Amino acid sequence: MTSARRGKPNDMKISVSELIVRYLERLGVEHIFGMPGAHVLPIYDHLHGSRVQSVLVKHEQGAAFMAGGYARVSHKISACIATAGPGATNLVTGIANAYAERLPVLVITGETSTYIFGKGGLQESSGEGGAIDQGSLFSSITRYHKLIERTDYLGQVLNQATRALFSRDPGPVLLSIPYNVQKELIDASVLDHLHIPHHGEQRQTQSGPIEALERLLQAASTPVIVAGYGAIKAGARGDVARLSQALGIPVASSLKAKGVVSEGSQLSLGCLGVTSNGDAYRYIVEHADLVIFLGAGFNERTSYLWDSKLLAGKKVAQVDRDAAQLNKVFKADVAIHGDIRDVLTELLALLESDAASHGLASQRLEKLRGHRHAAALPEDAETAGKRAQFHLMEAFFAGLAARFPEDAMIFDDNIVFAQSFFDVSHANHYFPNSGISSLGHAIPAAIGAQFFAKNGPTFAILGDGGFQMCCMEIMTAVNYKIPLNVAVINNASMGLIRKNQFQLYGERYIDCDFVNPDFKLLAQSFGINHRKIESVADLDDLFAHADLEGSINLIEIMLDKNAFPTYLSAR
After folding, report:
1. Three-state DSSP class for 347?
2. 388 Cβ contact partners less than 8 Å away, ≥ 6 residues apart
3. From CA 411, how far away is CA 442, in angstroms rounded?
């Protein structure tokens, strides 16, 4: 039973640790990922029987990645918890990733009691007397952080934390609570003064010349939409598709927005980016006269290191709910600050009333078909040979798209192969390892997501180097009976490093090759299924017969360590 259900009225005194658990419940937090330690046991004691389910992980970094995966899928506040000192420091990489992804993750950490600050307490991180300063450590990767040394301002702290978590530009919030403060008493009525925004309360109304955007569209011969994750986050997938179909405008996506419209459909150009197959890039450079950015930041990957040819001689329009993104790396002819779905709804209404727009779609589609016909010419022998090196990866993603055209969640740390070979449908959910691109992210993030979205298959795709950073979190999936498919690319190498040393450092290989464990025996020790993929026939059998929705599977895909993608990842 929760404390509230034990019959304690809000004017009673309760412990700070109980108040924190009630606060989590008020925020709608359903799961908190972490590991107990002496300095957070009072909070754990009140989690016992509360509506918030604690999830025991194998390493605190996994807890932070799980919380991030949960927030990314649910668009809700998630939470993680760790003890003082090493518990908190182990969270840093995952919280940095959540900060880069603007995910609302509430971080609860313990601390030594205030009366021993500066005296060398075990795992102390108060910043006093030579102890590490946890606040400074997290200051650049949180939207708000506070070491709570007294109870008299706790209400203000929780309001500040809530404001940061629910803001239009959210991110992680850290509350560090000393052990003795957790045990102090406080009025339960503090929670009655919290302002928790209702869903949609902070919706941004558009500001900017929508009519000017309509005029650009009417005047353009070959416009292209570049849709980013902002379009998905705004719930505008359907609106992007309707605009594309109404005017015959092809859509390229950023890496994070793969599937914003179904890839493989006649108006999809696929993914735009340095590790993609280049189709979208070539079409924009060779044909586009107007590029419309919808919630796309035009970062290094999407822009091919800000290649000037992409936008040269073209009109540019940009719609984004984040004003800081407008005109950040290019000057837009039309820049609109607002909710993408609202802007597209108004734009479509304007176009619907304009008879001149109705004949444009067929003309533009004809030009797109001509480009596709030219692009479909046979590859030269060298290009075909390079593509053949990755035939298993191409076949894997083709099989994944065919077997699961909807309701699949794919967390991908590798991204290189998916960007070229994986046609993501609008009904699937592809989550590339963006943020700070940390290895060891896919498995815990996929597990965290499964605590929210339990329907449909979930895949974590990663290389064998990243796998060894996080593979023990598979046991978290085992412990909580979370179905999961882990596809590990086995080339016994840090592939990106080896590729760079091949391309840029005269094949002077150092610290890129290693010996892998026997993945079959490892899977057996975990008590999960194992599949080794060495041929297309193995893949056919996998997708035809394996239980990929209700069990935990380790899928080992073999790859030659000397098979290198041709793109340059460093300059």
Report:
1. helix
2. none
3. 5
- Listed in sequence order, the residues at least 6 apart from 512 whose beta carbon sits closer than 8 Å to its beta carbon are 493, 494, 497, 498, 501
Closest of 101, 97, 95 to residue 81, by C-alpha: 95
Q: How far apart, in whole angstroms, are the C-alpha atoms of residue 484 and residue 17?
A: 34
Residue 303 sits at φ, ψ, to 5 deg, of: -90, 5
Secondary structure (3-state) at 89: helix
Considering just the CA atoms, what is the radius of gyration of the chain in Å?
A: 25
pLDDT tens track, the chain, 571 positions: 444 444 556 568 999 999 999 999 999 999 999 999 999 999 999 999 899 999 999 999 999 999 999 999 999 999 999 999 999 999 999 999 999 999 999 999 999 999 998 888 888 888 888 888 998 999 999 999 999 999 999 999 999 999 999 998 899 999 999 999 999 999 999 999 888 876 544 555 555 688 999 999 988 989 999 999 999 988 999 999 999 988 889 999 999 999 999 998 888 999 998 878 788 899 999 999 999 999 998 888 788 788 888 899 999 999 998 888 888 888 899 999 999 999 999 999 888 766 555 566 666 777 777 666 566 556 555 556 666 789 999 999 999 999 999 999 999 999 889 988 999 998 999 999 988 889 999 999 999 999 998 878 999 999 999 999 999 999 999 999 999 999 999 999 999 899 989 999 999 999 999 999 999 999 999 999 999 999 999 999 999 999 999 999 999 999 999 988 776 554 4
User: By the 8 A CB rule, do 513 and 491 touch?
Assistant: no
* Nearest-5° Cα angle at 89, 114 to 486: 145
- Is the Cα torsion angle 291, 297, 300, 301 positive or negative in sign? negative
Spell out the alpha helix ranges (H) of 332-413.
340-352, 360-375, 381-388, 391-403
Say which amino acid occupies 50: S
Name beta bridge partners: 15: 185
Is the whole model's pTM more than 0.85, yes or no?
Answer: yes
Cα 461 versus chain centre, distance: 14
User: What are the φ/ψ torsions at residue 301 (nearest 5 degrees)?
Assistant: -65, -50
d(CA 309, CA 227): 19
Query: Helix, strand, coil shares of the chain as percentages rounded to 5?
Result: 45, 20, 40
Q: CA-to-CA distance for 371 and 349, rounded, in angstroms?
A: 30
Pairing of strands 144-147, 409-412: unpaired
How many Å apart are CA 157 and CA 187, to the nearest integer? 15
CA separation for the pair 238, 246 (Å, rounded): 12
Token readout for 210 is: 């929508």
Q: What spatial distance separates the first Cα and last Cα of the chain, rounded to whole Å?
A: 58
The Cα 477–Cα 189 span in angstroms is 38
Beta strands in 127-277 (DSSP E): 144-147, 173-178, 185-187, 223-227, 251-253, 268-271
Domains, the chain, ordered by start:
4-193 (3.40.50.970), 210-375 (3.40.50.1220), 381-558 (3.40.50.970)
